[in-house]
Amino acid sequence: MNDVVVRSLGDDEFRAANALFYGTLHVTPPTDEQWERVRDVYQPGRVLGAFDQQLIGTARSFDAELVVPGGARVPLAAVTGVGVRADRTRRGVLSALMRHQLTDFADRGMVAASLYASEGEIYGRFGYGIGTRFRDCTVHRHRARLRPGVPSGGEVELVTSIDDMRRRLPEVYDRLPLRPGMMTRGAHWWPGLFSMLHRQGGPVSAVVHHGPDGPDGFAVYTVDRDAGTGGTMRLLDLHYADASAFAGLWRFLLSVDLIQEISARHRGLDEPLELLFTDPRACETKEVLDESWLRLVDVESALAARPWRGEPLVLDVTDPVLPRNSGRYRVGSDGVRRTDATPDAQLDVDVLSMVYTGAWRPSALVAAGRITVREPTTADRVDELVLTRSAPWCGTFF
Ligand SMILES: CC(C)(COP(=O)(O)OP(=O)(O)OC[C@H]1O[C@@H](n2cnc3c(N)ncnc32)[C@H](O)[C@@H]1OP(=O)(O)O)[C@@H](O)C(=O)NCCC(=O)NCCS
């Protein structure tokens, strides 16, 4: 691997990187027209290429902010577009890209990085751990009758042109209170959604929900038509400010005619969808899977950005890729600082991410052999330390 060079790509190289990436996913690269729609997802200065004689691998990122438990926002590098040419895999090209990229993130003061993984075995070795999980569910529309106490919600407004969605949806998203695990959506994220909507075979619809203070939620969907049994509505995006907007949007979705079932993918694990219905089984969970993978780039700043509860504990963190993170941290309700004290728990930086968001209980990670504790009762104390109110959820695919 000595002769592989990784460097930042210029704007005139983005399309080649994009074509290489699509090739690794076995997807036809964008046409000229499609490229015009999607090129802005490539943030200048954030696209890497790996070369031997030619471009053989790529990885990119875009800047965003991550909401951490407690509600603070930290600088986030959202990593995507990762691929290595099929005839150059398994010789360390991705490793070279990841090392270069993470070092760059650290140098630029990013606190965290995250990504959606095509396969579960790829990113743990680079310090990424499962930071949020989602569930895919199917709502059987004719069985899904809303319970009497469900909020009535507000008015919904149908938006059928993608150009109008481009104008309206970012504004609404920016108004929403984001919960832990969620991220901001900027100018390098939205073009990816709209480009995907353009590539849908049939019509795409959106609805904006209006609450007492203005727009407070939206949903985007397509319908796979079936003249015989009624179609399947595919929910592509759904976000809301509160329980009223959540109920109002679902009240609308269930009211759309000629629909047999609604496929709601990538939803938060504790979103109470089935609890809206007189028959909770009208909402069937099809799959629970890892959603975003989180990497703490600056461990000390990340730990300091969220609240901790109870007595302080000393965590001994190992980070082989960014060794400046390795060390002991005293973490408690009174704050976070580096220490030389005897550790209560030892863990790798990928596992720290899994604990950090609240996606996993530390005691479960102890049981799985991913955290080593000084004494058995420490596991419960770490659970207490990281206690979070809700299951973290990202809800923004990239
Ligand atoms: C995933 C991918 C980028 C890996 O690139 P690569 O250059 O082969 O990776 P590396 O050679 O640097 O691999 C580093 C280590 O990860 C392992 N690894 C890499 N990809 C893996 C995979 N898909 N499954 C299991 N292990 C994998 C390698 O075996 C190697 O382990 P080792 O150090 O113990 O030998 C490449 O296979 C690819 O482009 N796949 C298709 C597109 C894709 O899935 N992209 C990711 C989008 S999120």
UniProtKB/TrEMBL annotation:
Residues 4-147 form the N-acetyltransferase domain. InterPro entries: Acetyltransf_17 (IPR041380), Acetyltransferase_Eis (IPR051554), Acyl_CoA_acyltransferase (IPR016181), Eis_dom (IPR025559), GNAT_dom (IPR000182), NAcTrfase_Eis (IPR022902), SCP2_sterol-bd_dom_sf (IPR036527). One of its GO terms (molecular function) is aminoglycoside N-acetyltransferase activity. It comes from the Bacteria. Acetyl-CoA binds at V82, G83, V84, R90, R91, G92, V93, L94, S95, S118, E119. The keyword rRNA-binding does not apply. The active site is at Y123, F398. This is Acetyltransferase. The lineage of its organism: Bacteria, Bacillati, Actinomycetota, Actinomycetes, Pseudonocardiales.
